[in-house]
Amino acid sequence: AQKVTQAQTEISVVEKEDVTLDCVYETRDTTYYLFWYKQPPSGELVFLIRRNSFDEQNEISGRYSWNFQKSTSSFNFTITASQVVDSAVYFCALILGYNFNKFYFGSGTKLNVKP
Amino acid sequence: ETGVTQSPTHLIKTRGQQVTLRCSSQSGHNTVSWYQQALGQGPQFIFQYYREEENGRGNFPPRFSGLQFPNYSSELNVNALELDDSALYLCASSLTRGGTNTGELFFGEGSRLTVL
Q1: Which of A17, A29, A43, A103 lies 20 to 30 angstroms, CA to CA, from B93?
Q2: Beta-carbon count within 10 A of B51 CB
């Protein structure tokens, strides 16, 4: 079975705090993609990062960083020095299939950044 | 470069009716996938279209069907609407090269369907 778990339903932090959003996935496939998307109140999901299953190198992009660990089936997302504009729902997603044509999203973590 | 556009943005139907939702893909993209997002939940994959054919499907009944047109735009049709079909329906476009989807999805803002 394929599954993506985001155990944190909602997180509240104060601006400038660091915050980590957890994502645990489950699959028997050896080839897959993992993604993070941001969904602001407008509803449109915004792509943040893609990582394939063969690339465990961590990535940093500005205030965002991602930690991919196959040993624990986790793909966690950290925002450093959070800002109010980071307030949104964040989704972790797993993409599988012969042609990467099966998509599984977690239930999302709502991040509230207070000034 | 135009983004993904969906129509209508909001609509209200009654149980048993049929609905058609439309999606125009981002310029340069040849693949469209559809998702149902209930309130407070993550998007649930309905299906994906490539080369005008369905090439991937989630756990949704046959009354959810779709089309893709030569210009890569797409429609989602839902027959015999049920109350539980009330949700935000998201369309995403992506690029398939050599038969493999790149996996990078670009989403529209969605169509919010209410079934009474």
Answers
A1: A29
A2: 12
